[in-house]
Amino acid sequence: MLSSNTIPRRERLIFALDVPDAGSARQLVTQLGETVNFYKIGLELFMAGGYFELLDWLVAQQKKVFVDLKFFDIPATVQAAVRQLSQRGATFCTVHGNQAIMEAAAQAKGGLKILAVTVLTSLDRGDLDDLGFHCDVEQLVLSRARRALEAGCDGVVSSGMEAARLRAFIDHRLLVVTPGIRPVDNRPDDDQKRTVTVEQAFRNGADYIVVGRPIRSAPDPHAAAEEIQRSIATIFPK
Ligand code: C5P
């Protein structure tokens, strides 16, 4: 199920820079050095201030940036937000919404790639029931992914468990970005419910993995990231 999309292999690891301020973010990026070339910056940093300066700083250092702010609003507003962001040199952004929202976003994307959020990896069957979605998680992920591609989006954020079905049933161009990666079994207090290992995610067809706590909370984040890069190098020959 390995993806056939051509991606430099050291860009397949996206580190989720979930830290409370831009200063700690820069420190961590400097500490990780060459081991990480792709960073996801999300809501926590956005609320902390200095978000766009951090984005520009990352881009100036030849790092790729994934802006994970999960835009969700009326189509015209999401489109305007995507148009603004498309000028800044980021590689990915996330949009969470229906067909009209995704189409509007795709029309304004320029060189930015749009990832649609299918079903948050912190949700399981019971949570979907609570939200009123009385359907299978996998079916929901597949239908949302198919429609995202039709709308002109580039890929989806999807758990490693659903990646195999996406690879099997959706056009190979679809980029599959997989968070919820855990090197070992989940701790009982972990909020990620549909987790896989690095190897399982790629063997299931992921193009990229998003890893946060397993690197950030490791005794040596640099070594933890390098370990993941080594395992990616054994999966993808080049
Ligand atoms: O720390 P952990 O490895 O669980 O981090 C996963 C990252 O991926 C977090 O930044 C989280 O917001 C993000 N994410 C996710 N599930 C999605 C989309 C994004 O876990 N569906």
Radius of gyration equals 17 Å
Uncertain stretches: none
- Separation of the first and last Cα atoms: 16 Å
CATH class: Alpha Beta
Taken together, the total number of domains comes to 1
The small molecules bound here are: cytidine-5'-monophosphate
How much helical structure, as a percent, in the residues?
40-55%
Strand order of the largest sheet: 1-2-3-4-5-6-7-8
Tell the overall outline: globular
Sheet of most strands: 8 strands, parallel, barrel
Per the CATH scheme, the topology name is: TIM Barrel
CATH architecture term: Alpha-Beta Barrel
CATH-assigned homologous superfamily:
Aldolase class I
Give the helix/strand class: alpha/beta
Total beta strands: 8
The secondary-structure element order is EHEHHEHEHEHHEHEHEHH
If you had to describe this structure to a student in words, what would you say it looks like?
This protein has helices at residues 22-32, 43-48, 51-60, 75-85, 99-107, 125-131, 137-150, 160-169, 198-203, 213-216, 221-235; strands at 13-16, 38-41, 64-71, 92-95, 113-117, 155-157, 175-178, 208-211. β7 (175-178), α9 (198-203) and β8 form a beta-alpha-beta unit. The protein is built from eleven helices and eight strands. It is globular and about 45 Å long. The longest helix has 15 residues, at 221-235. α7 packs across α8. It has one domain (9-235): TIM Barrel (Alpha-Beta Barrel). The protein has an eight-stranded parallel β-barrel with strand order 1-2-3-4-5-6-7-8, surrounded by six helices. The chain is an alpha/beta fold and 238 residues long. The structure holds cytidine-5'-monophosphate (C5P). The site of cytidine-5'-monophosphate has 17 residues, from β8 and α10.
